[in-house]
Structures are given as structure tokens and as C-alpha cells.
Write a structure and sequence with these properties.
5% strand, 57% helix, mainly alpha, three-stranded antiparallel beta sheet, elongated
Length: 188
């Protein structure tokens, strides 16, 4: 990047003003595959910036000009190369990928809690989560998952109640293999 296709400060100021006032461009949920950038969704964002199109505000959905007037914003007149700079990018694809990543992290954490609770409810052992087992494979995410499960189950009265004289040879596979499965999922 050489800065030859950048935008003026006033264009950035408008974007900041839109964000500060919760003036959010209406962008259709479908219409871009991100194959050669996010031209379709970025054009909806840019349309609002030049005073056309629609946007959401805290008070509802409005034409851009109406929303700008009520929030003290002025549409921008795009300068040389600004249209290209605003339309030629992958910001939406990147945002969707990040949203998926953040949701996956929440799901992973939820799966850890559900796994620990399931093991506890089934009066399962924490032996399959022993760090010595997982250190042998040297799979970092598997080690982290086993550690997290062990920590979640630490101090469990249920687990302590059956630690001695448990006649079972081993817990069901679905409980024992959680570090291997969830560790691999964490890497994806």
C-alpha cells in the first residue's frame, strides 16, 4: 500500500460520525460472495455516505438524507479515487468471518461446560483428562482442552463421592475423548 488510493479525513470523519450516532447503512443480507471483494455490500454503505440509500438509526429505518439531517451529519462528495477505496475491499467478508470465529469460541466454551457437567452427571472420572496422557501427543489444543475440563470439574462433590471403590473400568467413550475431539475442533 502506497496511500495513493486512500480517502480524505472528512470521509473518515463522516464514518466516525455515523458510528457515533448509530446511523447504520441498510445492507442486504444476500448479494455478495466476496469472490472479487465486497462490492455489493460496500456500495450500500457508500451510498448512505453520499446521501442516498437507507440506514437504520435508533429511531428506525430512514432514507439517508433524513437520518443525516436529524443527526447533524453531512453527506460527503467523493473525491478522486475515494469511490474505489470505499468499494474495493473485503470488509464484509472479513467481518462475517470474525463473527463466525467469535461464535465458534462461544460454542467451544459452552461445549467445555456441557462436557464437564455431563462427565460429572454421569459420575465420570477426570482420569482421562490427566495432563500426562495429553502431553504424550504434544497437541497443544488437546492439552488445553483437557486442562480446561479438569479445572471445570475441580472440587466437584459428585466426583469426589465416587472416587474410591468405583467398579467401572472406564467411562463411556464420548466422555473420555472430549479433549481429543474438542481440541481438534479448537484448531479448526
Amino acid at each position: 500500500a502506497q496511500g495513493a488510493s486512500g480517502v480524505r479525513a472528512e470521509t473518515i470523519d463522516l464514518l466516525q460520525g455515523m458510528l457515533a450516532n448509530d446511523v447504520i447503512p441498510v445492507v442486504p443480507a444476500q448479494g455478495s460472495v466476496g469472490a472479487s471483494g465486497d462490492l455489493a455490500p460496500l456500495s450500500h454503505m457508500t451510498a448512505v455516505m453520499i446521501g442516498v440509500g437507507e440506514c437504520f438509526t435508533p429511531h428506525g429505518r430512514f432514507p439517508a438524507k433524513v437520518a443525516f439531517v436529524s443527526h447533524g451529519l453531512e453527506p460527503v462528495t467523493l473525491g478522486a479515487k475515494e469511490g474505489l477505496a470505499l468499494l474495493n475491499g473485503t470488509q464484509f467478508s472479513t467481518a462475517f468471518a470474525l463473527a463466525g470465529l467469535f461464535e465458534a469460541e462461544v460454542l467451544y466454551q459452552s461445549a467445555l461446560v456441557a462436557g464437564a457437567l455431563s462427565t460429572d452427571a454421569a459420575k465420570g472420572s477426570d482420569a482421562p483428562f490427566d495432563p500426562r496422557i495429553h502431553l504424550l501427543r504434544k497437541h497443544r489444543s488437546q492439552i488445553e482442552t483437557a486442562d480446561a475440563l479438569r479445572n471445570l470439574m475441580a472440587g466437584s462433590a459428585i466426583r469426589e463421592s465416587h472416587r474410591v471403590d468405583d467398579e467401572r473400568v472406564q467411562d463411556p467413550y464420548c466422555l473420555r475423548c472430549q479433549p481429543q475431539v474438542m481440541g481438534a475442533a479448537l484448531d479448526v
